[in-house]
Amino acid sequence: MSDLLLQIEPWADWWTSSLLRATWQGAIVLAIVWAISRYCTLLSPRLLCWMWRFACVKLLVALAWVVPVSIPILPAQSPYLVSAQVVEGGASGKFLADAGGRPKQPEVNFAAQHSSQMSVASSVKIAISALWVAGALCMVAIAIRQCVVARRLVRLSVPVQKRSLTSLCRQQGRRLDMRSRPELRISRVAPCPALVGILRPTIVFPHDVLNTFNTTELGLMAGHELAHLKRRDLAWNWLLLTVRSLFFFHPLMWVLARGWSASQESACDEMVLDRGIGQPSEYGRLLLTLATRPNPWLRPSFAAAGVFGTYGNMESRILAMSRIRPLSRNRLALAASFLLVGAIVVVVPWRLVAQDADQAAQPQAATKADDVAKAEQMDRMIASVKKMKDIALALLIFENKNKHFPPAVMIGPDGKTPHSWRVEMLPYLGRQHEFDTYKMDEPWDSENNLVVAKAVADLFTVPGNQATGECGYFLLTGPSTPFDGEKTTKIRAITDGTTNTVGVVEGKRQIPWTKPEEIQYDNNKPLPDLGGFFDDGFHVGFLDGSVVFLPKEIDEKTLRAMITFAGRERAKRSSASSWPELVK
Asked: Which residues lie closer than 8 Å to 439 by C-beta, 6 or more apart?
């Protein structure tokens, strides 16, 4: 059971974070659209309907679009601060520079996470995810029931026999430029007209429709349902269903549902009146008549579209009819253009980030050699962070797929030919073709494998610091590290916690990236030389996917504690800025 929870924990953490992000972003958009619908009474219902649709799209985009579009407007940051930040979703701590520009000791938490590795926050996130799954399944069950009810309405109906009604629907279809004609049926359980079905659209009329309503009212009812069909409202209702199923807990879902339904019906009303099918006064009287009919069985749902609602909805629709004005194609195109531009700005996630150093630097400062060197180094540090982040995440994906981290040395199918773990990372770094071309039954320096190494020569090279093809990212190997030669390590064996255990490090070694050679580490020997690319320190990638810049002056005990994966070290701090004092 604990193994299962360990597997679920990263996904629960990602999902709850995504739901939280989409919830507050969607709340802002829904509030804006509601305010527009409430106070901009002269706005065309068609445009308002599209606004509600874009609000639904925003919720889905905020949930799925993890990496926002960066807009470099803010002033450039210190290279130490930039390189220490976790790139796009890391879970580690931060590294800052002090007042003199020198790196401060990173805040490392070595609280022991024993075999379960489950914190209270993680347990809460897993519980929230489980409750969400239960709620989403309930919403799916409700949707299935609505589909069954709608199909039952069709099954309990009979085809229309009256030629007058069929001819009238055909006439209204021509006014609406309809190419396809829906099936017309009569039902004794339908209190008002309804459009059912996407692939096989059917308009179901009440059984007493011919005896109760005159020709003008029949034309308005038929025109309204045909407008639903022309606008593809039933297909668009699936978007609303998806959003309501995913965000059933959102406090503004009822606002979305009511606004969606009201704008959809008003847009059909506008289309009917715009095509000259009837007059607003006649249409208003028809809506009031339909609203007073008993409606005990058929209720509003995403699977059916018709003249539904309470007196309050009918009143707002009737008032909207009095404000409907014909729109020219030019005015409609202009309004649609403004709506599209606004939707792109609102829907696409974006964030303000710091400018690049070369863009933010003042002309007079660019003439100074030291400023130029710092700016260039910052660019290299940022690029190295991104590369290491990709590699650290590739290790995590490999572990999730294979249930263990890769060994430092991979043995080929012949049982004796060694290969580097970096070769196994190729598919997870978007290099599937090169991985398929690489021959595991040949030595790493064979003619074929050297061609592959040359094809992606800069994949494991620290940007701007190494010759092409040289490796700059290594694993620390040894009995006390997660990567001990040919041995594999499962995530539950890392009792110090993936957040506190180093996986990938920078190292200046003049060897090809395909060579199965790593940096050896021994608790009883001096620390190996790490970094060598940047003046004040080096980057390390933790096994949780985060990347941190460590200064050269870091305490040796602290660094050794980060390298081991089952030392169960604890950290005690006298103040927020002090170096951690490790105790057993």
From this structure: 446, 448, 449
Distance CA 50, CA 179 (A): 23
Tell me which residue of 9, 32, 231, 286 sits closest to 128, measured CA to CA.
9
Give the torsion through C-alpha atoms of 454, 455, 459, 461, to 10 deg. 30
State the pLDDT at residue 246.
93
The rounded average pLDDT for each run of 10 residues, N- to C-terminus, in the chain (584 residues) is 65 83 89 90 85 91 77 60 41 40 40 45 82 93 89 89 88 88 87 86 87 87 90 92 93 90 87 83 79 57 65 66 66 73 74 60 54 80 90 91 92 90 92 92 92 88 77 92 90 85 90 92 91 88 87 86 81 38 52
Q: What is the 3-state secondary structure (H, E, C) of 485-502?
A: CCCCECHHHCCCCHHHCE
Domain ranges of the chain: 139-325, 383-583
Per-residue b or e along 136-148, where b marks 16 or more CB atoms closer than 10 Å to that residue's CB: beebeebbeebee
Give the pairing of strands 570-572 and 537-542: unpaired
Q: Which long-range contacts (CB under 8 A, 24 or more apart) does 575-581 make?
A: 576/107, 577/104, 577/105, 578/105, 579/105, 579/555, 580/105, 580/108, 580/110, 580/555
Q: What is the pLDDT of residue 110?
A: 37
Distance separating alpha carbons of residues 533 and 527, to the nearest angstrom = 17
Whole-angstrom Cα distance, residue 90 to residue 546? 4
How do beta strands 473-477 and 502-506 pair? antiparallel
Structure confidence at residue 4 (pLDDT): 67
Q: Which two tokens stand for residue 233?
A: 């409202």
Tokens 């009918």: give the residue. Answer: 314
Rounded distance between C-alpha atoms, residue 116 and residue 13, angstroms = 16
Residues 6+ apart with CB under 8 A from 554: 105, 106, 537
